[in-house]
Amino acid sequence: MVAPAPAPAPVNGTEFLDDRVAPAVRSVAGWLAEDTGQAATLLAVAAGLFLALLLLRRGVQGLVRRAIPSPVWREHLAEAVGRTGGWFLALASLRIVAGTGSMPPVLARLVLFLFTVAAVVQVALWVQSLLMGLLRARSERADDDTALALMRGLLTAAVWIVAALTLLANLGVNITGLIAGLGIGGIAIGLAAQGVLSDLFAAFAIVFDKPFRRGDSIAYEPGAIGVVEEIGIKSTRIRAISGELVIMSNAKLLGATVANYAAFERRRVMLRFGVIYETPPERLEAIPALVREAVEAAPKAVFDRCHLTGFGASSLDFELVFFVEDPALVTMMDSRQEVILGIIRAFADHDIAFAYPVQVEMLAGPDGRIIDPRETAPASPKRAARGA
């Protein structure tokens, strides 16, 4: 029978200090004592490199601001360059000089370790700065939206998770199992929260694609119009014109056909009206000019056209089109009212009558023959005397 191998004795803190730390400290101290001149030279060179890198950072930042034409990219790249930490530049300087002299291996490994950590952290800061800058540029007026705040948090978490995994991989840690576990966990969470994630990504699409913003008037269903009050993580809150607060899921709202009335630069107005058939031809020809004067007298109204379009059932029909150079609904209604009143005044001055529906009823006798109502009307005394 083979006896089991004895378990390795645990290493306590005192043994670790005696076996690892103390020899490293003695090695570094001995190098400093024996090669003081070389250590001072390396330190001076590292300090010079550090100052040069500081000047290089400032120069690159200025070059970015001068050379990049796009104002968005110019500011974001300049901000990212400005986030280059002095601690990173100092460790980069030490890393450069670490392999040039007879520095003890333990000190060189320590510098390499610190530089690796600093490089990963610095790259994560650069990426985070660029992503946050682009997020601000795309979101513009939606800076305080809940969905945007969540997007910042998710991007920050993703950047630092990738940075941590990269750091562990560079330090020799096997991260395959960790990545597999994260992937399986992500799939499970995604399957369990499909509806929430669908609304969440719809919120991100609304924030970035900007089909509408908070404060915009939109038509979100047939006959339903309201003002967007808040774009949340799962739902959007819309204040209907009748006063109630409508809460719609982001996925449903994004999948619908949305008319954004806030995107107007100017409004097009069409008016149809009719005049009676008894209107003389010369007055019909004068109507477009009269209507044009009424439009031009209205505030912010621009005339487009006015034409006689056809023969109606009881009218000669005209069609007027004009624009109001203001996106506000109230301004458009004010201008429309002024145009209508101006047309009424102009027609009254020129003795032009608006048409209205007229219906004539004819009577028929037992044999189906149409009877003229004038023939059945009672005769006046004068007419009766003439007949006698």
Account of the protein in words:
With 388 residues, the protein is an alpha+beta fold. It has 3 domains: 24-175, no CATH class; 197-263, SH3 type barrels (Roll); 267-349, Alpha-Beta Plaits. 59% of the residues lie in helices and 15% in strands. It contains 13 helices and 10 strands. Helix 2 runs antiparallel to helix 3.
Strands, count: 10
> How many independent structural domains?
3
The largest β sheet comes out as: 5 strands, antiparallel
Mean pLDDT: 77
Report the structural category: alpha+beta
Q: Spans with pLDDT under 50 lasting ≥5 residues? A: 7-13
Question: In percent terms, what proportion of residues is strand?
Answer: 15-25%
Q: Using the CA coordinates, give the radius of gyration.
A: 42 Å
Taken in chain order, the helices and strands follow as HHHHHHHHEEEEHEEHEEHEEHH
State the end-to-end distance: 156 Å
The share of residues in helices is: 55-70%
Strand order of the largest sheet: 4-3-2-1-5
Number of helical segments with 4 or more residues: 13
Could you say which overall geometry the principal axes of the C-alpha atoms support? elongated
